[in-house]
Write a structure and sequence with these properties.
490 residues, alpha/beta, Aldehyde Dehydrogenase, Chain A, domain 1, Aldehyde Dehydrogenase, Chain A, domain 2, seven-stranded mixed sheet, 15 helices, Aldehyde dehydrogenase family protein, oxidoreductase, Ald_DH_N
């Protein structure tokens, strides 16, 4: 990328000003145009992604489809308009606290957004992925910092996306790409950039979040950084469906070589689970290539640290092999440790190990899973609960809701559904600023509320006008209603 970051920032700022006047229907059609471009060029894009990331064709084709569907979901979100949260309080001379002016508020685009793309999802969390889609849907231009793990794919996706947006009527510069870390850092500091998003490691995410917070005018930084995604299984659940549990766990841990932010990294289950043989058999399979040599080396180091911790034994040994090109090839590793050995020094086993490894924490009868969650965990993307009919898991579920953004039952956290209600985010360190990067609520990260008081009609944004030309849902508080406030409490 040879264009200076100053030019990129100014181009994005100019696009932001033009986008403010683009009707929702036009923005929605532009998102659909990107979706169509991805689908039409899927063969070329998947081939590039396979070569650069080593991920399997079926996984990547599914990810292209997911990304295309996600863009269409946000297109409908834009047309619906509820995310604008339009509120109109009519002027009221008899207001309970004295005469009330006409006040109208709604969400408006925040401005140019910088998106640091992920390496493990070259489509769904990359150039045209969820952060980009939600920021565009909100009416903001996006500058994507490409991930170094798939540069050619990033360039091609950005070219397709930018062309589709411009052909649909959006201003030039609505989608731009930069490639170097220096460019990304410079833009994160640039006063014309108004928000940033990131998916990646805790270390890198924290560094970037600190830069965003240390600016003379700090900006929101929405980082998804890391998660162990603990799983809790009751004795009755294991007794009822132990083999199915073993198969599901192995598949969830081994999928995409374990390089998923929702991989279950710790599994709390009864000490007498009796699943060693079933887990070892389920984990056996062909080697998978990891994304790049650096990730493979980090995984090998983390795996060794886990296996050398006190009390740890191997259930499925797994493997790590480096080929002549320096690429790492792996099979799943499943380790186990008694709760009595885990409790005294959990830090060695609580850190996320990015790759196909999970740890069974074998817990004696009567273990209080809710207490473990509250004392051992800070923030997670997910907590999974496996139980049988008759199990009282209320306390565990309440603890899970305090610690995670998504609580799921009798299933596995990998495979995040692209659906309006999805919450993909959690307390620190799962995410830096809350919010979600999947689901229609993701759009609210990239808007800010503005209120207009006693404004003439011609000065109001279309969504706040009485004639409502964009047909946006409006919550109207009529004059006189303050005299009945509190009546519903009776």
């Amino acid at each position: 990328m040879t264009t200076s970051t100053e030019t990129v920032a100014k181009t994005a700022d100019a696009a932001a000003r033009a986008l403010a006047d683009v009707p929702p229907a036009v923005r929605a059609k532009a998102l659909v145009a990107i979706s169509d471009a991805l689908t039409a060029n899927a063969d070329e894009l998947v081939a590039l992604a396979m070569e650069e990331t080593g991920l399997a064709e079926a996984r990547l084709r599914g990810e292209v489809k997911r990304t295309a569907v996600q863009l269409r979901l946000f297109a409908d979100t834009v047309v619906d308009g509820a995310y604008l949260d339009v509120r109109i309080d009519r002027a009221d001379p008899e207001f309970a606290l004295g005469p009330r002016p006409d006040v109208r508020s709604g969400n408006e685009p925040i401005g140019p957004v910088l998106n640091f793309a992920a390496g493990n999802f070259p489509f769904a969390f990359s150039v045209a992925g969820g952060d980009t889609a939600s920021a565009l849907a909100a009416g903001n231009p996006v500058v994507v910092k490409a991930h170094p793990g798939h540069p050619r794919l990033s360039r091609r996706t950005a070219a397709l996306g930018a062309a589709a947006l411009e052909a649909a009527g959006l201003p030039a510069g609505t989608l731009q790409l930069v490639e170097t870390q220096d460019e990304g850092t410079a833009l994160l500091k640039h006063p014309l950039v108004k928000a940033a998003s990131f998916t990646g490691s805790l270390r890198a995410g924290r560094l970037l979040a600190d830069i965003a917070a240390a600016r003379p005018a700090p900006i929101p930084f929405y980082g998804e950084l890391g998660s162990v995604n603990p799983v809790f299984a009751t004795p009755a659940a294991i007794a009822e469906r132990g083999p199915e549990f073993a198969a599901g766990l192995a598949a969830s841990v081994g999928g995409s070589a374990g390089q998923l932010c929702t991989k279950p990294g710790l599994v709390f289950l009864p000490a007498d689970h009796g699943l060693d043989e079933a887990l070892a058999a389920a984990a056996a399979g062909a080697e998978q290539r990891m994304l790049d040599p650096r990730i493979a080396a980090n995984y090998a180091h983390g795996r060794e640290a886990v296996l050398s911790a006190a009390g740890v034994r191997l259930v499925a040994p797994g493997s790590v092999r480096t080929d002549e090109d320096g690429q790492g090839w792996v099979t799943p590793t499943i380790a186990a440790v008694p709760l009595a050995d885990f409790r005294p020094h959990p830090d060695a086993l609580l850190a996320e190990c990015f790759g196909p490894l999970t740890i069974l924490v074998e817990s004696p009868e009567g273990t209080d899973y809710a207490e473990l969650l509250d004392t051992l965990f800070e923030g997670e993307l997910t907590v999974a609960v496996h139980r049988a009919d008759g199990d009282d898991v209320t306390a565990l579920v309440r603890a899970a809701a305090r610690r995670a953004g998504r609580v799921l039952f009798d299933g596995w956290p990998t495979g995040v559904a692209v659906t309006p209600a999805m919450q993909h985010g959690g307390p620190w360190p799962a995410t830096t600023s809350g919010g979600t990067s999947v689901g229609t609520a993701a759009i609210t990260r990239f808007v800010r509320a503005v209120a207009y008081q006693n404004a003439p009609t011609e000065a109001l944004p279309p969504a706040l006008r009485d004639d409502n030309p964009w047909n946006i849902p409006q919550a109207v508080a009529p004059a006189g209603e303050s005299t009945t406030w509190g009546d519903r409490a009776h």
